[in-house]
Amino acid sequence: MSASSVRSFEYLESLPGTVFNRLYKQPSTALAIFRRMLPHLAKSFVMAMLYMTRPLPVTDLETWVRPGSRREQDTAVDLLERLQILKRSAEPGTPRSYMLTNPFASSLRQALTGGGNHKSFGIPSDVRSKDEVTISQLDEFARKQWEGVLGYMVGSTGIGLRDEGANLSPSVKHLLQYGGLVDVKGRNVDITQDGFAFVLQEVNAQVWTILVLYLENAEQLGMDHVDVLSFLFMLGSLELGQAYSKANLTETQLQMLLDLRDFGIIYQDSPASNNYYPTRLATTLTSDAGALSSASAGFDSALHSSTNDKGFVFIETNYRLYAYTSSPLQIAILSLFTRLSTRYPNMISGKMTRESVRRAISMGITGDQIVDFLYTHAHPQMRKTETVLPPTVVDQIRLWQIEGERMKSTVGFLFKDFSTAAEYEGPCRYAGDIGVLAWKNDAKRMFFVTKHEQIAAYLKSKKDKRVEGG
User: What is the pTM for the complete model shown?
Assistant: First the structure.
């Protein structure tokens, strides 16, 4: 599961069952969750059971999986149950069995076969040829708006680039502050550790992070969670370059159009327009395709270039740095931990100093994040050396961080008092598999996790199986 899927899944998992019931009435939502949230084995279970009219005994389900893949089977079934897609049959006197829930099953069948007048995949609108917006125009709009968001976070407006970015609305700035991505003190905006980790993500994960923050803030805005989620999942199924009518949208979704336009996810000529266009940021929400195609001009090229793309950063053993770039965002990021001294049309130079690195660390950026950024974007000439980055520079960056470190706290939950080793090892191993395990002590049968919901669900499912087994 990708990083963006994990973030959206964690939000969905926290929703009550009644919300799932309303969500799954929309075929576009059922299809989006099937495509985006489920691993391959879970998808195989869903497709095999989609047209079954009777519950499937668990013994039959186990025959579909190789004997050595029992853990993967349990994980897939647990995931489907937590997303309210699979339910256990409660008929007395019968062996344990499973069945797909409704309306998820009926909505997914409708999404796959077509038909109906649900209009959950949007209403295409005919636009006069002279008013049509091209895909390249949509990409440029999305790039500009998204770069404006990232530029605000890294402080590009503070280095003479104010006119090159997009104008951000107060609601966008509030959302970034609400999510802990920036720290606003008066007129000063500083990026946080979470914010720097955010800009290092691929674009699709960034978009989902913002959208989850939007969802968490929806109640304060007087919005219906189901309307918000349904609209987001619908956007992922729309066609890039096609105009769509606002006629079938609810009041909540009409308000969302204005907010999503600020992020470059939706394009509208004006708020009064009867049509809207999804940009590439929207149409890739439920896929793993790249969010921006204009990588040479967008921030995606600055942070997420593939191994075949050229790096642009030189760093010397005397901590002098040279970067062959004219991108405002690349320059703004480098300025977070470098004292820039010279700027040419296609190159900047500066020096990493104790003060500049410590300033970045004081904003929450870690030494490892700085090293990772320099390594990822090292010039091809630097990659000809075995270490890529000078070891003295890497060591010094980490030493500068250690200067201010005494203790690191991690918020989480401690699980202990397991009666047997087998009882302890199962959930501990599961916590490691799903990436929430922060610490463990096998001798004392204790482990510490950053999130407890999935572990609690795992323990509950194990308890239920023991009860059923007698």
Answer: 0.70
